[in-house]
Amino acid sequence: MTAEQLTRPAATFTGRSVRRKEDDRLLKAQGEFGDDTPLARPGYLVFVRSPYASARITRIDTSRAAQVPGYLDALLPAEVEELTDPFMELQPPPGDAEVDRCLASNGVVRFVGEPVVAVVADSREAARDVAAAVVVDYEPLPHVVDARVAIEESAPLVHEQVGTNVAFEATYDWGDVDFALANADHVVEVDELHFHRFSSTPLECTAITAEYDAGTDSFTFTGGFATPQLAVLNLVGALRHPASRLRVVSKDFGGSFGVKINNHIPATAAGLLARRLGRPIRWTETRTEHHYAGGHGNERWFRNVKLAVQDDGTVLGVTYDALDDIGAYSRYEPLGAVIWTQVANACYQFKHVKVRYRSVYTNKGPVHPNRGYSRMQHMWLVERMMDLAARKLGFDPVAFRLQNYVQPEQYPYTTVNGCVYDSGDLPRSLRTALDLIDYTGARALQEQARGTGRRIGIGIGSTLDSGTNNFAQARLLNAHIPFSGNTEGGLVRIGADGSIYATTGGVAFGQGHETTVAQVVADLLGVTYDEVHVQRGSDSSLSAQTGFSGSYASQFAVTGIGAIRNAALKLVREVQLVAAATLGATPEEIELHGGTARVITDPERALPLAAVAGIVHFSPAELPPAVADEVGLVGRAVYRAPFELPDLERKYGNLTLTYATQVHACVLEIDEETGEVSILRYAAVDDCGTPINPMIIQGQVHGATAHGISAALFEHFGYDADGQLSAANFYDYHAATAADLPSFAYGNVVSPSPFTPIGAKGMGEGGGAPLHAICAGIQDAVGEDGIVLESFSPPERVLRLLRGHNLEKARVTR
Amino acid sequence: MSTDEDPHTITVSVDGQVEEAVVAPRTLLVHWLRDALDKRGPKIGCDTGNCGACTVVWDGLLVKSCMVLAAQVDGGSVRTAASLCGSDGTLNRLQQCFSEHHALQCGYCTSGMLMTAEDLLDSGDELTEAAVRRGLKGNICRCTGYHNIVKAIRAADGQDVDQDAGEHEG
After folding, report:
1. Which one of A273, A372, A393, A405 is most buried, counting C-beta atoms within 10 A?
2. Burial status of residue A269 (CB atoms within 10 A of its CB: 0-12, 13-18, 19 or more)
3. What average pLDDT does chain A have?
4. pLDDT at B4
5. Is the pLDDT of residue A61 over 80?
């Protein structure tokens, strides 16, 4: 603690860039990640995986494997079918006929890397040897790896019993896009755009430890579980075990970015084996396994895209057909089919939006939610179309966006589908971003570079980061899903010696929740930041959690902090009751300040919090019985986001509480000979309302920026015609290194949310702004020579763009 | 006659402590450090030597411990990130700079980053931004975008990094 912190009065930690509580243990190599915890008598689990995209399993022989020294057990698909129930499916018929288990089901494999057998041995090495000795015979079946082919009548079915490869289909029709297109001054049409497949690929792959205690017939699962109570529900359903005897714990967690949300699936296999063997089971996913089966981001085709534009530059609306390639299992999908509608308008004042959306099975790795989940794909499409329309119709790209943005005075702004954008200042955000890249200077640089073999391009990406879901949106895909609204829990208590403890229902994987929780609690309790002890990770058996607890959908600053704040306020009330009774005042006359509860008008009359704790915990007879009966020095509270049920018929209603904005701008250079793209300048302007810790916010912006740039230029989960993944390790899947990236200029605008407890908005996902900005920058550099219709721009594609790529796919029809 | 299967007895100084152990010939240094000694500095983030999360120093040389066999380090000395702070737990200058400049989020790459950064700081090279970025090429971070890591290392080198932060109020 610094001297400054010690002498500073209370109510000063929130809003400051205090150093993180998490840092000390992590910097000293004393964190506890999934594979760190030593175990007594561990069994190591390894999955035997499918080498085929689609095949019938004709024989499994584990007899040789059982002879390998160290062998303990092998779990087969038939046993899983007998011992477990399939995981819950969200989609209505016919997609609900899909069967998803922890090992390949119904005798077939559906993607390369799908687990077929789970073996256990007494060392890591032995487990690999055992897995290598398992013989599985396959009879290859026809497969499909392209969603556009998968929707054809003749396509092989990924799930025979579903009877179609379309897992879910819906048409969203708000306003009257057909009228707008028929009457607009101009229509810009594009045949097809493609948002490619990638993921945030957290550096720690998944590690799960399953323990079964026979004495209490209870399971404990330790690992990264981003939604602990939903993980419990999934596990108890699969394992047919009571929730009261199943616990899910997370400690330090090496990144998730959404993709680890389905860890209950491999955990089910580990749980079965832990119970059967009576020893703890550790599964440590390898990088290659993570790339095969750990979850990809949604790949999406946009076809028959039309944008209606007026002579004066007003954009009226957009329409397209979406094919969302979800891979072989739906899992969290088809929620992506509704999640995008949180940002149906993107950043713009559209009046008409019509989308036919299909979630399509293919024989590829399943998609999981990934940073920017489903909104990023739609906003990329909108930004590409805005960019193309400006170019094709001769509008200035900056003025065109400024004119069509939702304007600062229009907030709260209701979108075409009833979502309410809470606050923001997009024009100011864009101007700030352009200042940071020296837009005028960059245009001059662009002119100078002409004819030198280097092309300079300037790109803009405007996005929203919608946060705090209304879970009722799940009813838009299946009216029978009994979800609505959103809550989070928090617990703050004072221990016997006066120590202060805080527990949040959220699950951190790098976002610094221990820090921001301590900042808020310290201010409300009138103590220093260092005096607040925040529980690391999460534990489903602790009462802080609610059903929706967890970290997803950019919400902690609203839900997690809102709950902790409510809990701390309850605790303050209890302290006031005790202090008032002891000091001879009314509770309303007591304030918490400097580690004491004191009388506001007579601060000399004060009780240290340790004394309050001492009375409550050890000397309750000193208190009036009514106070002693009421006070336990535990504040447990819930934050409830104010939502209503949407109109399912019209698919209309507010689906998210807050909308942070990210406006990015870049200057990039293309080498005409190699097609290589270098980023010369990069600016990210963030607006997430009232900040709790600006340093952490900036860190999240940097991270999302790096993910987006890397995805746009380097990262691609491509599949070849045989259905083999072409990027199953960090050689072939190039996650950007420090040498690939520039420093980022950061700017911020603060538009407090009128809807949240302290004006903060959830943030961190970033809306994929760099993908939009880089595609626009490449387009700007390429000029009229080609059209950027793919989100992924490796050098070979950039070279094609310089030679007319896609020119035939886009046109102005009026 | 020894075969490929025979275990090796090794004696290694790890973070200043002499360790004797019997290891299988194929045991990787990273697995021995983690599983036998509970050293949590070296982490595993890939199977291919790309990510650098397992970076340690072996006899003064910066190595990825997934690319070295435990049997190879017999008679040598290995330092992990656990050795960086003072014996009383005080963070060293680089660690302090990492915290001050928010150069870590989930913390999984951090130990490897610190080892590589210490090596850069010891190299005597002029640590321009480009030099630091080149030096970090073998360490992947998926959280920070490297911006603050580069800044923290340059700060630990004694450079005034707050000037070029590019922060801007809109």
Report:
1. A372
2. buried
3. 96
4. 61
5. yes
**Closest CB from A253, A509, A748 relative to B169:** A748
Mean pLDDT (whole number) for A758-773: 96
Residue A148 belongs to a domain:
no
Residues A509 and A571 in one domain: yes
Say if residues B65 and B33 touch (Cβ distance below 8 Å): yes
* Consecutive H or E run containing A223: strand A218-223
Q: Write the DSSP symbol of residue A87.
A: P
Residue A1: its pLDDT value, please? 34
Count of domains for chain A: 3
Closest CA to A88 of A483, A370, A472: A483
Give the separation between CA A639 and CA A346, rounded to whole angstroms. Answer: 28
- A507 and A566 together in one domain: yes
Which tokens belong to A384?
A: 């590409």
Question: What percent of chain A has a predicted confidence (pLDDT) above 70?
Answer: 99
Q: Is the pLDDT of residue A5 over 90?
A: no
* Res A8 pLDDT > 50: no
Report whether A321 contacts A354 (CB < 8 A). no
Indicate if the pLDDT at residue A270 is higher than 60. Answer: yes
Question: Considering A609, A640, A671, which residue would you say is the last residue of a domain?
Answer: A640
A205 touches chain B (CB under 8 A): yes
| Contact (CB<8Å) B170/A737 | no
Does any domain span residue A664? yes
Q: Which of B4, B130, B112, B120 is nearest to B64 (CA)?
A: B112
Find the length of chain A: 814
* All domains in chain B, ordered by first residue: 8-83 (3.10.20.30), 93-164 (1.10.150.120)
Q: Which residues of B touch A729 (CB under 8 A)?
A: 46-48, 50
